[in-house]
Amino acid sequence: LYIFIYLVAPTPRHALLSETTYKHIEDNGSVSYTKPLPCWKDAFDRRNKKNGLGGLGLGLRKGEEGVGQDAMKMEVEVEEAEVFMSLVVPAFNEEDRLGIMLREAVAYLQSEYGGGVDVERHDDDDGVLSNGDLKRRSKHTRQGQANGHARPGDSGNGIRRLAGWEVLVVSDGSKDKTVDTALEFARSLGKESAGLIRVVSLLKNRGKGGAVTHGLRHVRGKYAVFADADGASKFEDLGKLVRELQKIEDGDGRGVAVGSRAHLVGSEEVVKRSFLRNLLMHSFHLLLWVLTPPATAAIRDTQCGFKIFSRPALPYIVPYMHSESWIFDVEMLMLAEAAAIPVAEVPIGWHEVQGSKLNVIWDSLGMAWGLFILRAAWAIGVYRRT
Q1: Dihedral sign, CA of 15, 302, 317, 290?
Q2: Spatial distance between the Cα atoms of 104 and 229, rounded to a whole number of angstroms
């Protein structure tokens, strides 16, 4: 069994050099040259290597060089956030739907965080941010942030100021005009906000999970949320996710909040679906209940494409991701559970959007197979943390 699982279990590919760069709109309205993406994971590994602790890798298989037990016990910290909210949007051939989603998302981000936010900072925590009440800043604090680079600093009185938001659109090997659509939308925002949209191009399609994981490696936010490019989730419910996440964050600031459509199961939106689609949905939930550990199994909607992570939670999840297909959400939740990271499930608004790339039968079978392989790989030690 071990040999079989070892052979069939997916292994994520390393990013190509060009995939660690981005483009954005310059102040003069032109498309920038490619620029290197900041990567908290690389900086994290460099610091650990310098301290003789090694890197956390990609979530290693047995027999591969990895971090030792001493390193796993260390206090895990990442670079301080530069912005308050990072949004990752995985997009594969989404030229028709992406613009609509971005318009809704950016309108909310700008209205809630556009002036930047102040977060409380304790004098004895060496710059580790605490969750505190958010305070809006005036419009003038956005000056100088149009190129996407924040100006973090201390405002005194134990308050650290963060720029508002950023968006990372990760084009997952798109063959259409997804990249052009994202850049054109950014240009439409004008000089002040255009540079806050960063567009990353993956040369080869990795799958939604691969695109999301890649984006999360490069976020600069105190919080990082990913949302589907179809705009099915009601984006203004991000505020609910943030509030619920802040309620459950542990002493290290770790927490995850997942959007949930479970409350819609009896609604007309779901009832009017085909019998086969609803049958497959309930069958998948039963399979999750059987195969996943308790806290993950208790999540009623693992597949909603609207999840938010606090920055301190990322190094316990992102480096260990393997699945790059539809089942990646479950692996994220399993990793959070294994690291004892609190998870909140939050009801959100949602509506069906035409143009889904999901093949109900084949993708459902693929998710069931992927779930079995994923659970087996972690259970028998093909995948491991150390």
Answers
A1: negative
A2: 11
